[in-house]
Amino acid sequence: MVEMNLFHFRDRKTFLNRTHPLAKTVALLVFSTLMARSDLGRIVVILAVFCLVALSISIPLGSYRRELRFFMVMATIIGVARAVGAESWQDPATAVLRFAAIVLMGLLFADTTAPDDISRAIGSLLAPLPGIHGYRIGATLELTLSTIPLLFDVAFQVSQARQARCESSWHHPVRRIVSFGTSVFTLLLERAEDLEAALRSRNFNADAKRDTMPLGYRDGILVAASAGIAVVVLLIT
Fold first, then answer.
1. Is residue 126 a contact partner of residue 212, using CB atoms and an 8 Å limit?
2. Of 49, 202, 205, 215, which residue is 20 to 30 A from 70 by alpha carbon distance?
């Protein structure tokens, strides 16, 4: 049984869980645009906001320590690459903190938004447009988002199995990395086949019309708060 739940949706009664997926998508676009060309000061403020939100909805970052090591390695690589030839320490620091903010933003979105809700919201939005298969696009997006936690689950299972066999991390490291990647890919294909069989058994229809949750006052608050925070960050930094 997999113990981690990185990038898995948790069904709770928080403010973000109750907001519409489209409102959260707008908030993502606002902060992503803001972070694209922000300096170190703005990135620090944005990251602090995300941390406060994560604390307010009790995201169990402590239980993600093992899984977050991958992102820590990526952040280190980004920092070292940007530090080479950089004129000051601020450039690599900005790149690392921006990467951390993006990861945390993704965690917040995945933790509070079910892939099925995203699919229904996108499908309902695009379906009225002529020549566009909105519900098919939504179903494709749902399946794509579902593979992200599946990939982490599979990698965790393979890692745990190798640790149970007491395999050394330093014995033939290149061969071990290749073998690990092959095992993950093979198990991921098996899981994908199981998912396909499950969808076929349920007569899954990507073009089927789906109901969606209505927009409410919480969605307006979220969009307004995101825009307000963006304006404040631009003004004070």
1. no
2. 49
Q: How far apart are CA 74 and CA 91, in angstroms?
A: 16
Q: Which residues contact 107 (CB under 8 A, 6 or more apart)?
A: 6, 7, 54, 59
Of residues 145, 138, 146, the one with CA closest to residue 206: 138
Interior angle at CA 235, CA 230 and CA 236, nearest 5: 105
| DSSP assignment of 10-45 | -----HHHHS-HHHHHHHHHHHHHHHHT--HHHHHH
Q: 171: phi > 0 → left, psi -120 to 50 → alpha, else beta; which?
A: beta
Tokens of 3: 């113990």
**Which tens digits make up the pLDDT trace of 156-197?**
777 777 777 776 666 666 777 778 788 888 888 888 788 778
Name 15's Cβ contacts closer than 8 Å, sequence gap at least 6: 57, 218, 222
